[in-house]
Specification:
143 residues, alpha+beta, Phosphorylase Kinase, domain 1, 2 domains, six-stranded antiparallel sheet, 3 helices
Length: 143
């Protein structure tokens, strides 16, 4: 992305790129705090076969996730569109994902694994009870 802002948020750097979106480190000029901004992939939005459905799902994700308040779920602060770019503004969580611990040489101790499973299970149960199902559960999406 060559833009330096989206909405009111100043884009600082790319954090990660996935199949359907990219996440950027950004600064909220009002609060001065850093946030994560998830931007929907333009190719998906412009795809004639799936674009309208993808846009609806992206907006729906923002709306539902924005209502969740749980200590183990990343908080959504805002969402919108800017010149046909759709974005979700989220709490910035620093640290490693579980992806780094999926190699034989870097496995976590069993007590840590049990604690992570317990916290994830509570978060997924809470989200499910609020009507939201996480459709992309994988080690790279667990912080």
């Amino acid at each position: 992305m060559t833009r330096t802002t989206i909405g009111k948020f100043q884009i600082l750097e790319l954090i990660d790129r996935g199949a359907t979106s990219s996440v950027y480190l950004a600064r909220d000029p009002f609060s001065g705090e850093n946030v994560a901004v998830k931007i929907a992939d333009q190719r998906m939005l412009n795809d004639l076969a799936v674009g309208a459905r993808f846009k609806k799902m992206f907006i729906n994700e923002a709306s539902l996730a924005g209502k969740l308040r749980h200590p183990h779920i990343v908080r959504v602060f805002d969402a919108g569109s800017d010149q046909d770019m759709h974005y979700i503004v989220m709490e910035l969580v620093r640290g490693k994902t579980l992806r780094q611990f999926c190699q034989v040489e870097s496995l976590l101790p069993i007590n840590d694994v049990i604690e992570i499973i317990f916290k994830c299970s509570n978060a997924f149960d809470y989200a499910y009870r609020q009507g939201l199902i996480h459709r992309d559960i994988k080690p790279a999406n667990i912080l």
